[in-house]
Amino acid sequence: MTAAVSVVVRYRKAVTYGVHALLAALETAGVEHELRLGTTPEETAAHIAETGADRVLVLWSFYSPDAEAMAAELATVRAHGDRPGVLHIAGGVHATAEPQQVIDAGWDLAAIGEGESTIISLVTALRQGEPLTSVPGLAVKDGDGVALRTRAAPQLPLDAYPSFVGRNGPIEITRGCRYTCRFCQTPFMFGGQFRHRSVSSVREHVRGMVERGLRDVRFITPTSLSYGSPGPDADLTAVEELLAGVKEELPPHGRVFFGSFPSEVRPEHVSPEAMKLLKRYVANDNLIIGAQSGSDRVLAASGRGHDTSPVRDAVRIAVEHGFRPNVDFIFGMPGEDEGDQRDSLKLAADLAELGARIHTHTFMPLPGTPWRDAEPAFIPLATMRELDRLAQRGDAYGHWRKQAEHSARLAETAKAYPRRTRRRRTSD
User: Which segment of 255-269, 304-318, 410-424 scores lowest on mean pLDDT?
Assistant: First the structure.
């Protein structure tokens, strides 16, 4: 007998894009389910209590800095809404990197890697009464509380599933990243190569958006000007095919945003030709450019793949072509000393003089990255004061102080869960 399944989502603004992709996969696969969205822990618990479905799958997705707060929410939901037949599953970059930790924190399951094929298989298994160990891309808890991994979920072409169906948001045009920055979770989560969505698939998304009365199009990509390219160089022909195709689908008043939030541009890709191309198509007057440090030594150690010279060039070229650059800097990267921080502050000040705004971050030892166990560098009071001065002048912004709190907490958690322990797999 087939069981009725209700999918309850702890629906948070911070992770809507990924949730929309999962729900789109379920819808396009035609897997029958009831869907409820809980915008608060209390609403989520109420949905669990009220649904008449035989099985309830509660979806949680979060980034590593939010893991502790989400565990507290989970406890609240369990206290008010749990009943037999309910399974709570954590997904996203943190659950992928730390499945044992999330299971110890109270979740029943962790989703490992990309979730589209996993969610389809999981809801199908719950409907058919099949064992969870048959579902790819999971960590399931054994009798001793150990996270056992099922077989890996496949990494499919990006066109296999839409970014969203009947919902709104940026269109994911590239997944994975060939740049192996030691502080970044993206290559770990999605692979070290680019997978690009086809222009025809993007245009199909845009047509659906226009039908719903939308006129603004944005994109999700780790590096905007890498679209269509398998390697380190920008493919401006592919970028123009994408942007021209999107513009053709939009009404006259439609707008395209590219290289601005929620994506960025690598500094070595900023050329006069690239900026002239963007000027012909995009509505945004700003670009997000990743610098990360003003120290060539730190940039080399972090695996960024460039030194500071293309950063200066990128800001000059962007400003000359009418864009205001928002330039990312990370302070406190492992091995960074006061001299490196002075170099970063000097470069930040120089870029601000050229017309850039500085987006300040504090290094966080994120799970799954090569620097997961690295010790964050000390940020002295003098550096903090200079960052505050830049912000007071309107030349800098960011949540680096809050990130410093996250950094300390993540470092302690990493010590409690040593890496390189042998992973146990299920036999299925």
Answer: 410-424
Tokens 């990255």: give the residue: 369
Q: Could you read off the pLDDT of 317-365 as tens digits, one per residue?
A: 999 999 999 999 999 999 999 999 999 999 999 999 999 999 999 999 9
Q: What is the 3-state secondary structure (H, E, C) of the chain?
A: CCCCEEEEEECCHHHHHHHHHHHHHHHHHCCCCEEEEECCHHHHHHHHHHCCCCEEEEEEECCHHHHHHHHHHHHHHHHHHCCCCEEEEEECHHHHHCHHHHHHCCCCEEECCCCHHHHHHHHHHHHHCCCHHHCCCEEEECCCCCEEECCCCCCCCHHHCCCCCCCCCCEECEECCCCCCCCCCHHHHHCCCCEECCHHHHHHHHHHHHHCCCCEECEECCCHHHCCCCCCCCCHHHHHHHHHHHHHHCCCCCEECCCCCCCCECHHHCCHHHHHHHHHHCCCCEEEEEEECCCHHHHHHHCCCCCCHHHHHHHHHHHHCCCEEEEEEEECCCCCCHHHHHHHHHHHHHHHHHCCEEEEEECCCCCCCCCCCCCCCCCCHHHHHHHHHHHHCCCEECCHHHHHHHHHHHHHHHHHCCCCCCCCECCC
The owner of tokens 């989502």 is 9
Residue pointed to by tokens 């679209």: 227
Evaluate if pTM is beyond 0.70: yes
Residue 328: per-residue pLDDT: 97
Which distant-in-sequence residues (6+ apart) come within 8 Å of 232 by Cβ? 178, 305
Evaluated on CA atoms 209, 213, 217, 221, the torsion sign reads negative
Residue where the block lists tokens 């290094």: 363
CB-side neighbour CA atoms (13 Å) of 261: 4
CA distance 399 to 407: 12
- Tell me how far apart the alpha carbons of residues 140 and 146 are, in angstroms, rounded to a whole number: 8
